[in-house]
Amino acid sequence: MIVAGAAMRPLDGVRVLDVTRLLPGSYATLLLADLGADVVKVEDPRGGDGMRTLPLADGRNVYFELLNRNKRSVTLDLRSPDAAAVLDALCAHADVIVDSFRPSTARRLRVDPAVLRARHPHLVCASISGFGQSGPYAERAAHDINYQALAGLLFARGSTRSTSSGQAHSAGSGQARSTGSGQAGSTRAKKDALAPSASKGEPRMPGPLVGDIGAATQTAIGVLAALLLRARTGGGSVVDVSIHEAAMAWSMFPSTPDLENACYAMYETADGHWLALGALEPKFWIGFCERIGRPDLAPLQHAPDEERARVLRDVREVMRGRTRDQWLAHFADADVCLTPINTLAEALADPHVAARGVVSRDRGTIHITPPHAEVRPAPALGADTDEVLDAAGIGVSERSRLRAAGVI
């Protein structure tokens, strides 16, 4: 967490080379940039990151702007033999390099960790790839929908009763473990969850890009850990992040617990708005039941199936009796987990969000940032090439030659 008004940000002075493309790498380095790192985005001079070419909104590429604030841009054609010396000079002045290529592509472009760390042992090399640096899928092409599909998430989303007894959870390593009590419950849960013949229903299209965002977050955490390790040992290290494995980590939470439970549900109000209730702890459920005038429901928080369905129907009927704002006023002083279900516009206008300072606006683009963080606009393609290369010891005449050859 950034302390508002702090004179120094946590990653001030840390230099990061971002040779990634698209969402996972851009978001990983954005997290580092927001913490104060000097992130230099290395882009192809023929058009830059592919996100620059995504459809425009009002003439602007909002996706690129959101993911690349607080960065600088350098153009460098990594495919050119002349790029090797430039990249070498940049790495000599960097603390971290992040790539998002398949292993064979990284080797061809001379950005694979083995090559870089042989010349720059101080360097933290983070590689984000679809399936990691090893294994039979390492060279496969895929996107978030594919990672979620392989991770079992497209069947897990929205599942309810079929996974209610002894829900099996899968860690990022793929090892199943159970929340069921006792060895027998654990064994049964594993068998039920992993059985090929289990009823799966139909898969659903994914919502949030949990593989991409999860991998980006894991990368940022891995880089921070590697920097801490370097402070102790003096040497860099390799951070190997698999988007597929990041998606698999979400299988620890494949669906909400056995649903259709009144204590953890969404309720429509008299005016067509909705409220979310998360009264999992008994004290919250008891307080909720008392506040809606139904203390008789308090002992039935986890009632058997038929009784539980009746409780849910009863609460739904009660909640339809008032408008959203009337209910919120009624619960204003109650210690109960009840919130409005906001639209995105309502979420951004929430007074708590304003008080925390996590929303900033730049030329019409809305950024979600650490509280009170500085926001600099995303750079134009190659806007900082001369400044960055000059600091790396590449002089004017050499830059002119490289520019004429299309290398920068």
Task: Write a structural description.
The protein is α/β, with parallel strands linked by helices. Among the domains are: 15-140 and 209-250 and 378-404, 3-Layer(aba) Sandwich (Rossmann fold); 264-348, formyl-coa transferase, domain 3. 38% of the residues lie in helices and 14% in strands. The protein has helices at 22-34, 62-67, 83-92, 103-108, 113-119, 144-150, 153-156, 182-194, 210-233, 243-249, 282-291, 305-319, 324-330, 344-348, 351-356, 385-391, 396-404; strands spanning 15-19, 38-43, 71-75, 96-99, 124-129, 168-170, 176-178, 238-242, 264-268, 274-278, 338-340, 359-362, 365-368. The strands form four sheets. The chain has a six-stranded parallel β-sheet with strand order 3-2-1-4-5-8, sandwiched between helices. The longest helix is centred in the middle third of the chain and has 24 residues, at 210-233. The chain is elongated and about 80 Å long. The model is unreliable at 159-199 (pLDDT under 50).
